[in-house]
From TrEMBL:
Key words of the record: Aminoacyl-tRNA synthetase, ATP-binding, Cytoplasm, Ligase, Nucleotide-binding, Protein biosynthesis
Origin superkingdom: Bacteria
Assigned EC number: 6.1.1.15
Protein name: Proline--tRNA ligase
Entry annotated with the keyword ATP-binding: yes
GO function terms (MF aspect): proline-tRNA ligase activity
Subcellular location field: Cytoplasm
Annotated SUPFAM superfamilies: Class II aaRS ABD-related, Class II aaRS and biotin synthetases
Annotated Aminoacyl-transfer RNA synthetases class-II family profile domain residues: 38-335
Subunit structure: Homodimer.
Family statement drawn from the similarity comment of this UniProt entry: Belongs to the class-II aminoacyl-tRNA synthetase family. ProS type 2 subfamily.
Catalysis: reaction(s): tRNA(Pro) + L-proline + ATP = L-prolyl-tRNA(Pro) + AMP + diphosphate
Amino acid sequence: MRMSQFFLPTLKETPAEAQVVSHRLMLRAGMIRQTSAGIYAWLPLGWRVLQKVAQIVREEQDRAGAQEMLMPTIQSADLWKQSGRYEAYGKEMLRITDRHDREMLYGPTNEEMITDIFKTFVKSYKDLPKNLYHIQWKFRDEIRPRFGLMRGREFLMKDNYSFDLDVEGAKLSYRRMFLAYLRTFARMGIKAIPMRADTGPIGGDLSHEFIILAETGESQVFCDRRWLELDVLAEAPAPDSDLKEFFDRYTSIYAATEEMHDAAKAPADLVTARGIEVGHIFYFGKKYSQPMEAIVAGPDGQPVTVEMGSYGIGVSRVVAAIIEASHDEQGIIWPEPVAPFKLAIVNLKVDDAECSRVCEDLYARLTGAKVEVLYDDRNERPGAKFADMDLIGVPWQLTVGPRGLKAGVVELKRRATGEKLELSVEDALARVM
Ligand code: ATP
Ligand code: MG
Ligand code: MG
Ligand code: MG
């Protein structure tokens, strides 16, 4: 992408309405634009990151055996009357009446709809287990939408739903998702700690919230210091094992939200911090399958009401939470797996023929090698270019200027550490390809 062509409306001033750093930086970096309270348009830079995050979520869901589908945003109230949640959900649900006076709603979650789809088609234990997910916009009419994408009204969620014949099966599905979530967040370069959570209005037996530690988090959380050092990707077992040993080991390391915190059980080396909920998993048994009659024929021909769980990740909130966890005075520091571009080429003097020739050549070679590159080919002061690059947080910056070229070097800077290296063009390329 050439920066001269890119729709990237960065701001120099700090927007007054933004109270937390992720909101400020997303506005300043030209990632989003608020269109109504708690509702945002994703501009090209923000959209790239949102897709990166969604793709990692998708890959880990697929790896864990879940199957992707897509359910609509608009739902019929009838299903929610069957589950008993139509009244119970309260004012957070955006209710809509269509021209035929039918009661509809903008889905805040999809337990009812998926249970209805499941029961229409699945009639036998032979078709179990099943785990289905989608990545779709949700709407919750939050009483106080705030902090930008962290608590929006319209937000992107990955939600999936497991269906099993018995409790043992359902718990295995839960453990699989527990592992998938640990891997998902670790791959994004962030530390999300699973904390024993209250099951709240969805109800049920077993639940963990995945929490990122950040000063601006809305909840108070407590965890064993060991969580900060765990390397989940190195340890994680194959997803097709029964995962018991793994699950027991991880859940034995203390971590709890305020509601579940028990000072008597907490370890000596306790971390007390603020946390952001980026994911939440539930096992709730027959809570929906019973009232909605999701029943299959068991091995002995007897009817069995299926065991269910649901699992959510706030995909759009994750984008903001990553910024909360990874930024400095100058701007965003994207972990490489979710960065909008891997590398930026900064042309210090676009009217210098040799400088632009080298930049164009680098740009062509990198793009040809499928490296995602942002090429700053604008006729701007170097200071403004560096400030923009630091603000939008591209992990690697390759600076090309006439003086360096005379000495046969370009400068490669790593955004995360500020570390700079002078390298020949070929050595610089070798490092980032
Ligand atoms: P919160 O406690 O923050 O209100 P929740 O417990 O109501 O979230 P869940 O029903 O567990 O949310 O939904 C799954 C995930 O969706 C959450 O873990 C969170 O990451 C995300 N999420 C929920 N509400 C919002 C929101 N208003 N804006 C952005 N993401 C949200
Ligand atoms: Mg909520
Ligand atoms: Mg919550
Ligand atoms: Mg929750």
